[in-house]
Structures are given as C-alpha cells and as structure tokens.
Amino acid sequence: MEAASPALSRIGLAGLAVMGQNLALNIAEKGFPISVYNRTTSKVDDTLDRAHREGLLPLTGHYTPRDFVLSLRRPRSIIILVKAGSPVDQTIAALSAHMDSGDTIIDGGNEWYENTERRLLQVADKGILYLGMGVSGGEEGARHGPSLMPGGSYQAYLNIEDIVKKVAAQVEDGPCVTYIGEGGSGNFVKMVHNGIEYGDMQLISEAYDVLKNVGGLSNAELGEIFSDWNRGELESFLIEITADIFRVKDEDGDGELVDKILDKTGMKGTVLLECCLHARAVHGGADDCGLFGLQVGAVRSGIDKKRLIDDVRQALYASKICSYAQGMNLLRAKSVEKGWNLNLGELARIWKGGCIIRAVFLDRIKKAYRRNPNLASLVVDPEFAREMVQRQAAWRRVVGLAISAGISTPGMCASLAYFDTYRRARLPANLVQAQRDLFGAHTYERIDRSGSFHTEWTKLAQKGNNPVAALN
Ligand SMILES: *[C@@H]1O[C@H](CO)[C@@H](O)[C@H](O)[C@H]1NC(C)=O
After folding, report:
1. Measured between alpha carbons, how far is 403 from 401 in angstroms, rounded to an integer?
2. Closest CA to ligand 1's atom 13
3. 78 lines ligand 1 (CB under 6 A)
4. Could you tell me if the CB of 38 is within 6 A of ligand 1?
5. Which CATH class is domain 428-464?
6. Where in the sequence of the chain do the CATH 1.10.1040.10 domains occur?
7. DSSP readout, 320-371?
8. What separation in angstroms does the CA of 246 have from each of 59, 199, 253, 282?
9. pLDDT by residue for the chain (472 residues), tens digit each?
C-alpha cells in the first residue's frame, strides 16, 4: 500500500456533464483535492479551465481510467455521475478493473434503486463498497450545496462523511445530508422526493389556473400574491420563483413571457404522484384543444377576488400537506418491506436546503415525525390535522368552483380525496368486498366477529327475501 502522499487526491469524480463538473468544483472549493475523469477528453479540459478560473481549486484532470484511479488516496472513493442504466455499468467496469478491496464507488445519478442493489452485490465480489446517492438541487445545488441522499454500504458512507457534510447545503440544523439506509434506499428516497417536487409544481399550477381563469387575475397581481404567500406558511423556493416568473416581460412581444409558453410538459426525471402523471399525460400541448368548445372561467363575474385568493392559498397549503403525506407513506411502506429503517423526520430535515422542494414547511414535518416516529400519516398528526380541518371549507370551495368552471384540478382533488378517506370512519369498500365474494368467492371479514366468511349471494338474493318483491 502506497503512503498517503500529498500528491494523491482525496476523492475522484467520473462523468463531467453539467452536474459532474459543478459537484467536482464544489468539492474542490471545500478544500478536498479531487481528481476528475471523462472518456471525452475535452470535458476534462473544460473542468480544469473552470477550476483554474474559479480560483486555482485543488482539482486534477486524468485521461485514462487507470491514471484516474491511481491518482487517488486509498481507500479510494469515486463518485460517478453518468446517465442511469448501462453507462453506469460501463463506467463501473472501466474503473473497478483498477480498484482494490476496500475502495468505494458512489453512483450520484438518478438510478432505479434495484439496479443499485444489483451493483452493490456485484462489486462486493471484489471487496468494493457501493453507495447509490440521490443528488438534488440541479446545477446550482451541485455547485453551491445540494441535498444529498446516500444509501448502501455504511462503511462507504463513513469513508466520505467528512466530504459530503461540507459539500451539502447548510441549514440551521445541520448539513443537508444523512446516511439514508441500506441497499438502494438513497435512490428510492430521491425518486419519491422528485415525485413530491412534481406534485408541488402541479398544485401551484392549479392554484394559478383558478386565480387566473376564475378570479381573472393579471400576471402583475399573481406576482404580488405569490410574493405575499412567500412571506407566510407557504414560504418555499418554488413559490418564490413562481412570483418571479410572473414579472418577466416578453422581450420579443407584448405582455409577459409566461403567457407565450406552450403548455407542454417534458417527462424529465422520475414522476411519481399519480395526479401529476395524469395531468401531464392528458395534455401534451395545444394541438387538440377546443375540441369540446367549452368556455372555461364562466363564473368569473361576480366573484369576490379577495376571498378567492385567500381560499386558494388555504387549498394549496392543505393539498400540499396531503401530497407530502402520501410521499412519506410511500417511503414508510417501502422501508418496512425492505427493512431500511428510514428516519422520515431526518429526510424532511435534509430537504430543508439545497433542493427544489426546500420550504419552511419541511421543518414542521420534521417535528411531526420527531413527536411520533410511527405516525400513520402526516394528516393524523394533531397539528397538521387541526390545520387541515381549519382549511377544509376553503379547500372545498376552491375545488367546487374549479369543477363548475370546467377547470381541472387533479392534484387538489386527489389531495382532498386522500384527506376525506382518512377523515371518514367507514368507506364503501364493504360493497367491493361483497362483489368480490359473489363472483370470486374471495371471502370477507365482518365488523362484528372475527374470521373469514363466504356467502352464496346469488342463491340468497333469488330466494324469496327480495327487496323489490317486499316493496310491491
Ligand atoms: C463523458 O462525457 C460524455 C459526453 O459528454 C458522456 O456521454 C460520458 O458518459 C461521460 N462519462 C464518462 C465516465 O466517460
């Protein structure tokens, strides 16, 4: 084993597209000497140029996998940031040929968690440790402080803990990173995080739709309202940038740019919450509009603007709680299934900075799970439950108004349905159980005694005690 020479780098990073370059510069800036590598040599040169321009950062470029790996201090840690799927396998193959037992590979891409679990076992044959690390925050985050979600080998995490704690976004209760859990948990958590992110964006766009098309608000008014909302319980990165968007004029024409943008949604990243998947799938652009000749926003006249704005704010907040509750419960269900032991309060904490969903509200989620780590759902936490009850009248008014105006609000509707499912003591699933028992002998349970039961429904229905006959 070579001595820890100062010429050797503390960590390596392979894959120098936008995210890779920015993360490498961030690591170097925090004082950790880093080696970088990319098959396309111009990418290495670009990164070296940037490191030079941004203040002689401790970053060295390497042009072959072997030189790159041998430039690292042992035990080696290498972050790879390439496209998910086979490029990851190819990069692992190229690098691991030169690595030793005890070294670590960290995949920082948006990988499907089961692929990470497969690779974890695969490299373990050579004694190599493995992490699948969610990196959130886009270009800006990667460069100045992302939210990091590393899962896999705990020893591998310990090997890079000092680095990730400095590189991650910093908030008042610590760096936005924690060891997530074993296996592919880091990737799974990142995927759900992305689902929550798209859910937030969908809910905000629905609030905008109602305010604009029912309330008849102008972009200038919308900008003011979102700025105002950003000073209260909705304070978050997404609300803040939305306020900015309404203020940008179209440099190539009249009015604001937002009105000139085609309402098309690119399927980027990992979309999760069903409502936004639906909204995206249904409407791919303006091509097939006007098919139904329906004028939306018909109820605009005679609306109390002030009240509508306040109702929409409350509907947005309550919907957001339900959306996060669903995301958190997805994580909890998977955690139980896989034995990951996820700490949901910690996850809320590491999302408070760096990432797109950063919001004041996440601190309250963190506290709800600290109060009760086994919370069945965020909507039954006493504080959140009280807030939802206070807002439900406004929430129902907004959804009702949108429905009668012919404006679809799938996110707000789905959230309200989720809340009502929790709120009601008894759901109509008894009838579904009866139907399944009738046609498939699936059996059912009873509310008044234990055991499984089966009934000859058709035979009994035809036998005399038939309600129609009784009515006559
Ligand atoms: C290097 O750059 C190319 C093109 O930008 C990219 O496709 C490739 O995955 C990168 N990564 C590695 C490890 O070579």
Report:
1. 5
2. 15
3. no
4. yes
5. mainly alpha
6. 192-423
7. HHHHHHHHHHHHHHHHHHHT----HHHHHHHTSSSSTT-BTHHHHHHHHHHH
8. 40, 20, 15, 25
9. 444 445 799 999 999 999 999 999 999 999 999 999 999 999 999 999 999 998 878 999 999 999 999 999 999 999 999 999 999 999 999 999 999 999 999 999 999 999 999 999 999 999 999 999 999 999 999 999 999 999 999 999 999 999 999 999 999 999 999 999 999 999 999 999 999 999 999 999 999 999 999 999 999 999 999 999 999 999 999 999 999 999 999 999 999 999 999 988 654 433 344 544 444 444 443 444 444 444 555 445 678 899 999 999 999 999 999 999 999 999 999 999 999 999 999 999 999 999 999 999 999 999 999 999 999 999 999 999 999 999 999 999 999 999 999 999 999 999 999 999 888 878 899 999 999 999 999 999 999 999 999 999 999 998 866 555 444 4
Q: Which residue type sits at 204?
A: I
111 as an active site residue: the answer is no
Which of 2.40.10.340, 3.40.50.720, 3.40.1060.10, 3.10.100.10 would CATH assign to domain 11-179? 3.40.50.720
- Which residue's alpha carbon is nearest to atom 5 within ligand 1? 17
48 Cα to the center of ligand 1, angstroms: 16
**Structural class in CATH, domain 192-423:** mainly alpha
Find out whether the beta carbon of 223 lies less than 6 Å from any atom of ligand 1. no
Query: How many angstroms does the Cα of residue 52 sit away from the middle of ligand 1?
Result: 21
Going from the Cα of 128 to the center of ligand 1, the distance in angstroms, rounded, reads 22
Model pTM? 0.86
DSSP, res 76: P
Tell me which residue has its CA closest to atom 8 in ligand 1. Answer: 15
Q: Which residues of 41-78 are buried (b: 16+ CB within 10 A; e: fewer)?
A: eebbeebbebbeeeeebbbbbbeebeebbebbbebbbb
Q: Is the CB of 47 under 6 A from ligand 1?
A: no
Active-site residue, from 190, 212, 352, 366? 190
83 annotated to a ligand binding site: yes
What's the number of CA atoms in the CB half-sphere (13 Å) around residue 374? Answer: 0
Residue 20 CB less than 6 A away from ligand 1: no
